[in-house]
Amino acid sequence: MNANIPQANAGIEKITIYVPGKSAVPAGVHLHKLSSNESPLGPSPRAIDAYSQAAAKLEYYPDGSASELREAIGRVHSLNPDNIICGNGSDEILSLLANGYLSSGDEAIYSEYGFLVYRIATLAAGAAPVIAPETDYRANVDAILKRVSDKTKLVFLANPNNPTGTYLPIQEVRRLHASLPPHILLVLDAAYAEYVHCDDYEAGIELVSSNQNVVMTRTFSKIFGLASLRIGWAYGPSHVMDTLNRIRGPFNVNAASIAAGSAAIRDREHVAASIAHNDLWLGNISEALQALGLKVTPSVGNFVLIHFGLDKGKTAEDANQYLSERGYVLRGVGGYGLPNALRMSIGTQEANLGVIAALKEFLGADNAR
Ligand SMILES: *Cc1c(COP(=O)(O)O)cnc(C)c1O
User: Fold this and answer.
1) How far does the centroid of ligand 1 lie from the alpha carbon of residue 89, in Å?
2) What is the rounded CA–CA span in Å between residue 327 and residue 25?
3) Atom 10 (ligand 1): residue with closest C-alpha?
4) What is the CATH code of the structural domain delimited by 12-42+269-367?
5) pLDDT of 9-58, one tens digit each?
6) Which among 329, 303, 314 has a CA at the least distance from the CA of 361?
């Protein structure tokens, strides 16, 4: 410690800077970015149009309460807009939740391969992360409950989770909630909810509506293809919305985002097309990878976690190198404690088929089963 310079708050030094999905390939090679779970179909043309129109009014501050966007979200999901808050990506909302409910001495629980932003938000708020082990790359409710202490204030659960792609059935989420004391806030991060079709899955809207200690976060970065505009939202009880509204930046969502997000969520046809594309390719890719002898964690999201062997020249790092030289950029997940896996976002048909062909070459005919 150097007493001659300002000292950042305790805990900040423990934060490892978030490494975004890469997008670099050799010069002249066509890039297929499959590293950030972005939408291969892009946004709705109506969202692009709304964004362009916003360019004519850049001198005005945005509507600080993002009313148009909250109302559009409310209409689609049948929610009261007063119980919705929008943010600069759901990342911002996760940080607001941490800042609003955690301070020094408190603990936040999340699972072993849970989304990395939970750790960053917890440490930035001065609190201590508590990690619950997973079973088969899936959150384990009993392991989470076992770690609840007098200091626990928040539980973060990504459902489905990134980078594993696994989910907890709503019954398990309910069981988790039922065993948490009422002063602990359960944050359900449903960034990939639109992609899930399992009968036993729910994003958590009903759980939020009927309780005072559950919040659900959502994003426009995935199914809506608007990652660059940074739009997220949360649905929660009035007292939680009040807390977040007090501490957020007064204009935390910009005008172009409000306009584009509102247009995007109203375009149900584009959403349906994006879901159909994912349904088709999530199944195809999972099967094709397994046919190559690779282990794939069963995913309900718009990405798959692929596990590689330990043979020299055939590790995840080797595969990552091989693929990126050919323009296919996947996500290394060593930062999640998964050094021998890669996460692949579902891409365009061309990208998907290209990765499978390249991996077949990489593994060599004798490895393929
Ligand atoms: C992508 C993702 C988000 C969304 O982040 P934004 O800040 O809205 O872009 C949130 N949670 C998880 C688990 C994600 O994978």
Assistant:
1) 7
2) 6
3) 191
4) 3.90.1150.10
5) 999 999 988 888 777 788 899 999 999 999 999 999 999 999 999 999 99
6) 314
CA distance 168 to 194: 15
User: Which token pair is 170?
Assistant: 């709503």
**Is pTM beyond 0.85 here?**
yes
Residues 6+ apart with CB under 8 A from 105: 127, 128, 151
Q: Is 116 in the pocket of ligand 1 (CB under 6 A)?
A: no
Q: Please, are residues 90 and 217 in contact by the beta-carbon 8 Å criterion?
A: yes
- 219 CB near ligand 1 (under 6 Å): yes
Residues of the chain within CATH 3.40.640.10 domain(s) are: 45-266
Structure token digits, residue 358 = 């390249």
**Model pLDDT for residues 288-306, shown as the tens digit of each residue:** 999 999 999 999 999 999 9
Query: CA separation (Å) from 18 to 35, 40, 288?
Result: 14, 23, 31
| Ligand 1 contact, 221 CB (< 6 A) | yes
Start-to-end CA distance of the chain, whole Å, equals: 56
Which residues make Cβ contacts (< 8 Å) with residue 98, sequence separation at least 6?
108, 121, 122, 124, 125, 127, 154
**Is the Cβ atom of 299 under 6 angstroms away from ligand 1?**
no
Q: Where in the chain is the domain with CATH 3.90.1150.10?
A: 12-42+269-367
64-91: pLDDT as tens digits: 999 999 999 999 999 999 999 999 999 9
Domain 45-266 annotated CATH 3.40.718.10: no
- Give the strand order in the sheet containing 107-111: 84-88, 231-235, 214-219, 185-189, 152-158, 107-111, 128-132
Cα 165 to middle of ligand 1, angstroms? 13
The answer, yes or no, to whether any atom of ligand 1 lies below 6 A from the CB of 38, is no
